[in-house]
């Protein structure tokens, strides 16, 4: 009977049979016996000879798994669609992540099963899959705190891209939206605007609350007080002003495309509002709705009304002038997140890190018109 031709790489079990020892002994010998267990020299030689005879080569993936180090960094998104489209606001972050990971000798694992979004990540065990990697980067406006807290408490290395304070011990890197938003407001006030309205989505995502905090700080600095700007509904009253006559209000919207109408814009202009500010989000919903409402009202920016964006506009919108606002250093933040994650893997505990956003003058703001209509 002819010997059956072997398929695939030889296994440790075959080495053990040929050497006449246990597979545990083979693993110890071929792994360098880091445990320091006493192995007879003759036994060690038989194992090595059997390995040479069979052409045994250790599986590098198995060796890294045994050492609990795969040189793999995970990327998990809580958004509804994994950000692999260049038009997606998260895409530049991934560019920075990939470059820095490659420079540090790590491969990436994209957990595309997270494409069901934040609710899907709440499913039992959904987030646990990230343990396949050595550590993981997280993206998303809304995160499931329960599963995330369990991973942090277990000591699994995690870094969230964006400020997150609700899970104690979670490392994050983010953009300084407070300072950047305040700078946009100061720019409007310096141009002569005295009544400004911020439109934002009605949720408590840290990125949104930070932008609103910056908006209020900018008004407060202009008014010379500790706080300025009130809340309003689409039909509500303007907020209180400061001692220099600077007034502002915040409008929270559940459905921006439905709630921001041309009539509302006209009413705001009649009340003396000369500048509108919108927040940037994954969808750009507030900015899209504001632009549409202003256009339907027959107003032109910046001649008849000024428009500013706390961030950058969605790439798919037609370029009819660069929006006044600020640029988020997305690629740099992605790289910083990788550095923070590798620090965690090395046993260091970096804290939260905020990066500065560059002000963008744009062409959608200017001095207020001499008279409102």
Properties at a glance:
373 residues, alpha/beta, 434 Repressor (Amino-terminal Domain), Rossmann fold, 3 domains, 6-stranded parallel beta sheet, 5-stranded parallel beta sheet, 36% helix, elongated, LacI family DNA-binding transcriptional regulator, DNA binding, LacI/GalR-like_sensor
Protein model, in words:
This protein has 373 residues and is α/β, with parallel strands linked by helices. The chain has 3 domains: 12-58, Orthogonal Bundle (434 Repressor (Amino-terminal Domain)), CATH 1.10.260; 72-176 and 330-358, Response regulator (Rossmann fold), CATH 3.40.50; 177-328, Response regulator (Rossmann fold, 3-Layer(aba) Sandwich). Helices cover 36% and strands 16% of the residues. The protein contains 13 helices and 13 strands. Strand 1 (72-77), helix 5 (91-103) and strand 2 form a beta-alpha-beta unit. Helix 5 (91-103) packs across helix 13 (330-345). The protein is elongated, with a radius of gyration of 29 Å. Residues 1-7 and 233-243 have low confidence and may be disordered.
Compact summary:
By secondary structure, the protein is of the alpha/beta class.
